[in-house]
Specification:
Blueprint: E1 9-12, E2 18-21, E3 27-29, H1 45-67, E4 76-86, E5 89-99, H2 106-119, H3 121-126, E6 132-136
Parallel strand pairs: 5-6
Antiparallel strand pairs: 1-2, 2-3, 4-5
GO biological process, one term: response to oxidative stress
Pfam family, one: OsmC
Protein name: Stress inducible protein
Length: about 140
C-alpha cells in the first residue's frame, strides 16, 4: 500500500496518561473509564477508536451512496466499542449503528451499509480479528 496520509500520535503512561498527535491537533488526557475502575476524567482508547471508526464508516457510506446515486448525506453512524476479558488478555467488539436518512428504503440502505463495510479501512482492519455487528436504525 502507498499511504496517502499517515497519522502520528504518541501516548505516554498508557491508559492513565496523555496522547498527543504530532501536529498538536490532539492533546488529550487519558484515564480508565469508571466501569474499569478508573476515575473517568479523561478519554480512553475505546472512545478514540469508536470516534475514528464512526467517522470513517460514515465516509465509506457516503462514497458508496454517491456511486449508487443515493443521497445518504444525512446518515449518522454511532460506533460502540466494547472491551472485555478474553483468556489471559482483553478483546474488543464493535457495533456500528447506522441511522439512514428518512425515505431511504430498508433494502437499499442495508445494501449500501454492507458495501460500506467492504470499503471502509477500519472494517478492513477489524475483519477476521474482532466481531463487528452492523445495525440499521
Amino acid at each position: 500500500m502507498d499511504a496517502l496520509y499517515t497519522a502520528v500520535a504518541t501516548a505516554t503512561h498508557g491508559r492513565e496518561g496523555r496522547t498527543v498527535s504530532n501536529d498538536g491537533k490532539i492533546d488529550l488526557a487519558l484515564s480508565l473509564p469508571v466501569a474499569m475502575g478508573g476515575d473517568g476524567q479523561g478519554t480512553n482508547p475505546e472512545q478514540l477508536f469508536a470516534a475514528g471508526y464512526a467517522a470513517c464508516f460514515g465516509s465509506a457510506l457516503g462514497l458508496v451512496g454517491r456511486q449508487a446515486k443515493v443521497d445518504v448525506s444525512d446518515a449518522a453512524v454511532t460506533a460502540e466499542v466494547g472491551i472485555g476479558k478474553q483468556g489471559e488478555g482483553f478483546a474488543l467488539a464493535v457495533t456500528l449503528r447506522v441511522e439512514l436518512p428518512d425515505g431511504l428504503d430498508e433494502a437499499t440502505g442495508r445494501k449500501l451499509v454492507e458495501q460500506a463495510h467492504q470499503v471502509c479501512p477500519y472494517s478492513h482492519a477489524t475483519r477476521g480479528n474482532i466481531p463487528v455487528d452492523l445495525v440499521i436504525e
